[in-house]
């Protein structure tokens, strides 16, 4: 069974930093592109970032570019998202999602999703 | 980039059909056949129900169908059932290796 398990969320002050992790199992992680998607409380979904299977290609939404960094450790079957210079508007449930269908960024779809980890930015 | 436009809510009685629209531009929905749809029940993670505009993954009931015309994609739920009550999100490739989601539509089964 494919499983994605996020961790690392918490309560931080504006300007703070945090690293989220997503442990993957049940599929060949090093052959799979991955994404982070977030959902603010009571709001819709927002794509955050993409990373290719090798980790050599990364892309970001304009809202997080320059502040967030996506990475992966294929030896540990783990995806990461480093969040820096956090703002109140970054408060959200952060999901990791396997990109299925096509490996090219933007041209596949998200399946499956983890259960999410909550990041709250507040003073 | 602004989110794709979806109606805030739609409703229907059991057995009826409902259609959710997802309107974008020629730079996203209209420019590519890379539209997917996700169902999200309260407190749960989203679940893929349609990919590549109209393809239904294995295990998704055939009462869910997708289509696209111009800059607007659509999700139709035929034979509405109580368990279909959820939020639904469209998603499209938006160029420059980015994805764009719709604002979400709440489906209520009357």
What does this structure look like?
Chain A has 123 residues and is mainly β. Chain A is 0% helix and 51% strand. In chain A, strand 9 and strand 10 form a beta hairpin. By secondary structure, chain B is mostly beta strands. Helices cover 0% and strands 44% of the residues of chain B. In chain B, strands 1, 3, 4, 7, 8 and 9 form a six-stranded mixed beta sheet that branches. A three-stranded antiparallel beta sheet of chain B has the order 2-6-5, with no helix packed on it. The chains are: A mainly beta (123), B mainly beta (110). Chains A and B meet through strand 5 and strand 10 of A and strand 7 and strand 8 of B.
Give the helices and strands, then pairings.
The complex is a heterodimer of chains A (123) and B (110).
Chain A: E1 3-7, E2 10-12, E3 18-25, E4 34-39, E5 45-51, E6 58-60, E7 68-73, E8 78-83, E9 92-100, E10 109-113, E11 117-121
Parallel strand pairs in A: 2-11
Antiparallel strand pairs in A: 1-3, 3-8, 4-5, 4-9, 5-6, 7-8, 9-10, 9-11
Chain B: E1 9-12, E2 18-23, E3 35-40, E4 47-50, E5 64-69, E6 72-77, E7 86-93, E8 99-101, E9 105-109
Parallel strand pairs in B: 1-9
Antiparallel strand pairs in B: 2-6, 3-4, 3-7, 5-6, 7-8, 7-9
